[in-house]
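dumping this here so i dont lose it again. seq + smiles for NAP
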Amino acid sequence: MSRSTTTARLLPGGPVADQILAEVAGDVRALRAAGVNPSLATVLVGDDDASAGYIRIKQRQAADLGFASPHVHLPASASQADLHAVLADFSADGSVHGVLVQHPIPAHLDYDRALEVLAPDKDVDGMHPVNMGRLALGLPGPLPCTPAGIEALLAYHGVPVAGREVVILGRGATLGRPLAMLLAQKRPTANAAVTVVHTGVADWPRYTRRAEILVAAAGVPGIVRPEHVRPGAVVVGGGVRYEGRRLLPDVDESCAEVAGAITPRVGGVGPTTVAMLFRNAVRAAGRAVRP
Ligand SMILES: NC(=O)c1ccc[n+]([C@@H]2O[C@H](COP(=O)([O-])OP(=O)(O)OC[C@H]3O[C@@H](n4cnc5c(N)ncnc54)[C@H](OP(=O)(O)O)[C@@H]3O)[C@@H](O)[C@H]2O)c1
């Protein structure tokens, strides 16, 4: 492992998430006082230890925030039809406001097809095609959690985004593509000049080196190195790969020697992603009573 001298200001996600979750807890209390019992259903398929752990953490957090959280655990042998049946039931159940499917799901199942069975307004991941369409059109709806968390993280830490050059490395559906749409929207915490680079742009460092804000969204460990970063730039590490429980970020830690500000290796974009999930859930509950 390389050793580095951190000179960049750190941009932790924890305090951002705490602030969002405090707002969520307040909104849950207000809804309960108005006779609504916010409910976030969770679905786990299979017996992967890491996924089971993540869903337990989210259920505990849901309970702490005051959500009811009905849970369905399907066996690893579950069919696509089994998964669709669970999602159709939750979609039709008026007492359930949000539904979270822990992914990855077993390889024989198609997550994207399953998502289409879910009522778009209950999609707390913000990944349903209808919600992606709403994002593209600037209409209200659940936002994809990691991109929304990154916008919140930059705003919380006072990083100006409007009018600045943002370069995103990666055009994936979870992160790069929706983040580009979000940060290009006309809003004080967005309104940026956004460029997206990917494997089709062989000389992508030419773009990242001019970025005032660089977001790594590739899922390729260590792909972003100091020579790809403009001195003083803000670097956001979104992409990660897991080897078991070991987290391998896109951004090499030596980038901290060049960047002006950088998300920490652990505790950056992760906590804000989870906070946005709960924000989507409480907003879904609010919409259910005030459509
Ligand atoms: N921290 C969190 O909480 C969180 C949450 C969600 C996702 N993530 C992470 O975010 C990352 C992106 O996820 P995703 O689903 O949006 O993306 P994805 O579908 O995995 O796509 C990765 C993107 O990176 C590009 N890419 C890969 N290798 C590259 C290379 N060598 N040079 C240039 N571009 C390259 C790909 O280009 P092509 O399109 O040309 O193939 C693609 O656009 C993943 O690592 C994921 O784990 C993190």
